[in-house]
Specification:
alpha/beta, Rossmann fold, Oxidized Rhodanese, domain 1, 2 domains, eight-stranded mixed beta sheet, 15 helices
C-alpha cells in the first residue's frame, strides 16, 4: 500500500496509465541488483531509487577515485577514497529514504554469483570487465533472472536485455576478444555524458521489465553513437551452439574460467611494480623508460627518464633501440606495454622489465605526475 506521502512523491508516475497505483506497487515490491557502481551504475542507481524501486543491491569492491568523478555522478569530491558500494548507498538513501539499500562491497566471483543473483528479480550489468559480464550472464541465465546489459567506450554505447527465453551475452559474444586487443575506458577514454545516456537507458529497460510494459530490448541490441547523434538497432538470435542454453549446453554452473580481460605478464620478462620504479631507475642511471603511449595519451604528462615510441610505430622503429640498454616498458595502464614488451622480447631484447599497472599506477601516489 502507498501512503499519502508516496502518492504525492510518485504522482507523475500514477498519472501514466501503464504505471498507475498497481505499477508503483510493483516497483516498491521489486528487488534489483546493480553490479557495478561506476559510470553506468551511477545513473541506474539514482533513477531506480527516484522511481521507487523497493530494494537496490549494489555490488562493487572498488573505491572512489578522482578520475571517476568525470562520469560517475553518484559520487562527489568528498567520496574520494570511500568504498563505492557504501558511498553509492548513502546517495541512494538521500534520494529516497523509502528504498532499502543493500551495499555489497565485494567482487562477484563464481563462488558467490548465483547466491547473490538469486535474491533479486532483475539484474543490471553495469560492469566494465569481460570476465564479469560472462559471470553475470551465466548466473542470471542459470537462476532464471533477466540481465539488463550495457557497455560504453569513447562515444559509443550498447544496450540489451538478456532474458530467459531469448538470446544471452554468449549468443552475442561467444568468445572474449584476445587479451589486450580491446582498450578499456581507462586506456581509450569515454565521454562522461555517454555514461549518463546509456545508464539511463539501462534504468528504463529495468523499469519496463519490472512493470511488464512496452517492448524490452530482448533479442535486440541498441547501438548509441553520441558523436553522430544516432541510435540504431540490430536483431539478436539465440545461438543453437550456445554452451549455456543452446541445443547441447555444456555450462551447468558458473565458473571463474570465464574469459578474462587482463592479459598475462609478458613471457620471459619480470614485472616491475610501480612502487619500485624510482629506486630501479636511481640504481641504473643508464636505464630508460620506453613510453609506448600514443601522442594523445602523452598529453596527460611526460614520463621521467623516458624514450617515447608509440606502440603503433614500434615495429617500424625497433632498429632505433639498443639491445644493450635496459628498458622499462610502460604505457598508461599496462595493456599496450604488455604487447610491446612481448614484441621486444621476441625480437631479441633481454634487458627488459614491464611496468605493472602502467604509469597510472606510478602516478597514483605522486600528485606531481598528471598521468590520470
Amino acid at each position: 500500500m502507498l501512503g499519502s506521502g508516496d502518492l504525492r512523491r510518485y504522482s507523475r508516475h500514477l498519472l501514466i496509465p501503464e504505471v498507475g497505483l498497481a505499477g508503483q506497487g510493483r516497483l516498491r515490491a521489486a528487488r534489483v541488483l546493480v553490479v557495478g557502481a561506476g559510470g553506468l551504475g551511477a545513473p541506474v542507481l539514482q533513477y531506480l531509487a527516484a522511481a521507487g524501486v523497493g530494494t537496490l543491491g549494489i555490488v562493487d569492491d572498488d573505491r572512489v577515485d578522482l578520475t571517476n568523478l568525470q562520469r560517475q555522478v553518484v559520487f562527489g569530491e568528498s567520496d574520494v577514497g570511500r568504498p563505492k558500494a557504501s558511498a553509492a548507498a548513502a546517495r541512494v538513501r538521500d534520494i529516497n529514504a523509502g528504498v532499502c539499500v543493500e551495499p555489497l562491497p565485494i567482487r562477484m566471483v563464481a563462488g558467490n554469483a548465483r547466491a547473490i543473483v538469486r535474491g533479486y528479480d532483475v539484474v543490471v550489468d553495469a560492469t566494465d570487465r569481460f570476465a564479469t559480464r560472462y559471470l553475470v550472464n551465466d548466473a542470471c541465465r542459470l537462476e532464471g533472472k533477466p540481465d539488463v546489459y550495457a557497455s560504453i567506450f569513447r562515444f559509443d554505447g550498447q544496450v540489451s536485455v538478456f532474458a530467459p527465453g531469448g538470446p544471452c551475452y554468449r549468443c552475442l559474444f561467444p568468445q572474449a576478444p584476445p587479451d589486450g586487443s580491446v582498450p578499456s575506458c581507462a586506456e581509450g577514454g569515454v565521454l562522461g555524458v555517454l555514461a549518463g545516456m546509456v545508464g539511463t537507458w539501462q534504468a528504463n529497460e529495468a523499469l519496463k521489465t519490472i512493470l511488464g510494459i512496452g517492448t524490452p530490448l530482448v533479442g535486440r541490441l541498441a547501438l548509441i553513437d553520441a558523436l553522430a547523434g544516432r541510435v540504431r538497432e540490430v536483431a539478436l538470435a539465440t545461438d543453437p551452439a550456445c554452451p549455456l542454453h543452446g541445443d547441447a549446453p555444456t555450462i551447468v554452473d558458473v565458473s571463474d574460467d570465464a574469459p578474462d580481460d587482463v592479459a598475462p605478464a609478458p613471457r620471459g620478462v619480470a614485472p616491475l611494480a610501480a612502487s619500485e620504479l624510482d629506486a630501479f631507475l636511481a640504481a641504473r642511471p643508464l636505464a630508460r623508460i620506453l613510453d609506448v603511449r600514443e601522442p594523445h595519451e602523452r598529453a596527460l604528462g611526460p614520463a621521467p627518464q623516458a624514450i617515447e615510441m608509440p606502440s603503433s610505430v614500434l615495429e617500424a622503429r625497433l632498429h632505433e633501440l639498443d639491445t644493450a640498454v635496459e628498458y622499462v616498458v610502460a604505457c598508461r595502464v599496462g595493456a599496450k606495454s604488455r604487447w610491446a614488451t612481448q614484441r621486444l622480447y621476441d625480437a631479441g631484447f633481454r634487458r627488459l622489465r614491464h611496468l605493472d599497472g602502467g604509469l597510472l599506477a606510478y602516478a597514483a601516489a605522486r600528485p606531481e605526475f598528471p598521468f590520470f
